[in-house]
Design a protein that fits this description.
By secondary structure, this protein is mostly helical. The protein has a single domain, classed as MetI-like fold. The protein has 13 helices and two strands.
């Protein structure tokens, strides 16, 4: 006998929908409204249509910032994902050192983003910073303020220090969830350490790696606070990512229409690339499972 349909359950979901509407949908619609209008102050708006979208998509300024974002996210994923897997594999599974390692891994994640930028800003100074002073003392002309390469290396090192722990914790949770029977069977078959990783651990980490890659891509592609505090987008525009350029356009120049259009395009790019990552990694996992 089929159970009667109970619509009262929707009342429990309604607060969630209201919260999402207030925190996401309504602000998004406001940005969309600004992106198709122009204003000269005095709360007077004029219809602009797709003018601002055309201006953004054809702007070399937008293209340069987008390329910087893509390069930065690619470097971050190429470093943090393998490094996170390697650290997770080296962490103990049992004993007193397990909570110690987990706490140490979680500590960087507890530090606010603006504080991370401030720490590395001081850390990289050549007069009082440990990193900058040490490099200068050994003869390396390090200056992240005036050298674009040094600025990039510092931002990448800062992000790796701050966020690799997230990949480590996700991978570690996936590793400890693997049943011991798999390892016992591998030992009986005389499987090498590499084969255990290749045929047991890596396939079992598929889901957590998907989450790790998506989270780290979205976070790195939307990075703002840390590089803004550290370099302010400089030297020149070498570390001006889309988020920094967007804030400069909206607040610094007060070009609300182009800034709104740019934020919508930015949002759609993140959605598209995240969907691509998810589709590719999911299909790869399905193919590997056949």
């Amino acid at each position: 006998m089929d159970k009667p349909w109970n619509n009262k359950a929707w009342f429990f979901v309604l607060p969630v929908f209201l919260l999402v509407a207030l925190s996401a949908v309504i602000p998004l619609m406001t940005v969309v409204n600004y992106s198709v209008q122009d204003t000269f102050g005095g709360n007077q708006f004029f219809w602009a249509g797709t003018e601002w979208y055309t201006e953004v998509l054809t702007s070399s300024r937008f293209h340069d910032a987008l390329i910087r974002n893509l390069i930065f996210s690619g470097i971050i994923l190429a470093i943090e994902v393998p490094l996170g897997i390697a650290i997770a594999l080296s962490m103990p599974r049992k004993g007193i050192w397990v909570p110690v390692c987990l706490i140490l891994m979680a500590l960087p994640l507890l530090i606010p983003w603006n504080v991370v930028g401030t720490i590395w800003k001081v850390f990289g100074r050549t007069d009082i910073g440990l990193l900058g002073y040490t490099l200068t003392a050994i003869g390396v002309e390090y200056n992240y303020v005036s050298n674009a390469v040094h600025a990039w290396i510092t931002i990448i090192a800062m992000d790796v220090w701050h966020w690799t722990s997230l990949v480590v914790l996700l991978c570690y949770s996936g590793l400890v969830a693997i049943p011991e029977a798999y390892y016992q069977a591998a030992r009986i078959d005389g499987a090498s350490r590499w084969k255990v990783f290749r045929f047991i651990q890596l396939p079992k980490l598929k889901r957590v790696l998907l989450i790790a890659v998506l989270l780290r891509f979205m976070d790195s592609f939307m990075i703002y606070t840390e590089p803004f505090v550290l370099t302010g987008g400089g030297p020149g525009n070498s570390t001006t990512f889309l988020s920094i350029d967007l804030v400069k356009m909206a607040i610094g120049q007060f070009d609300l229409g182009p800034a709104a259009a740019m934020s919508i395009v930015y949002f759609l790019i993140i959605l598209l690339l995240s969907w691509v990552f998810y589709t590719v990694m999911t299909n790869y996992g399905v193919e590997r499972g056949k």
